[in-house]
Amino acid sequence: MIKTLAAAAMLAAATLAAPAALAQGAAPARVAETAKGKAYVDARGMTLYVFDRDTAGKSNCTGDCAKNWPPFTASAGAKASGAWSLVQRDDGSLQWAYDGKPLYTWAKDTKPGDATGDGVNNVWHIAKP
């Protein structure tokens, strides 16, 4: 019983922590001007990227890759709508995707508007609207 109550409390806390707009299905990212033109950015204004080696609905960036390219994670209770979807990662966490493509930030971008990850290894690209 205690485990059940603890699990329920954790789920409730995670759900309450999710921004209300996301829980209602609003876009998890916004469009902003970056060094490479208009792109989707996270709440901090950091450029979002897509990875050519991902398949629709599946992230193939794990381990060291995910350290350099942190997944654009979703909070528990987030609701996808329209072109926005949620991808379950191998570790069970949720990641936002746009048009089925999982989204990431780049560890070497240091300030909002940076887009230094665009074109890395010819497989990383800014997520364009």
From TrEMBL:
<dbReference type="Pfam" id="PF03640">
    <property type="entry name" value="Lipoprotein_15"/>
</dbReference>
<dbReference type="InterPro" id="IPR005297">
    <property type="entry name" value="Lipoprotein_repeat"/>
</dbReference>
<protein>
    <recommendedName>
        <fullName>Lipoprotein with Yx(FWY)xxD motif</fullName>
    </recommendedName>
</protein>
<dbReference type="InterPro" id="IPR014558">
    <property type="entry name" value="UCP029720"/>
</dbReference>
<keyword id="KW-0732">Signal</keyword>
<feature type="signal peptide">
    <location>
        <begin position="1"/>
        <end position="23"/>
    </location>
</feature>
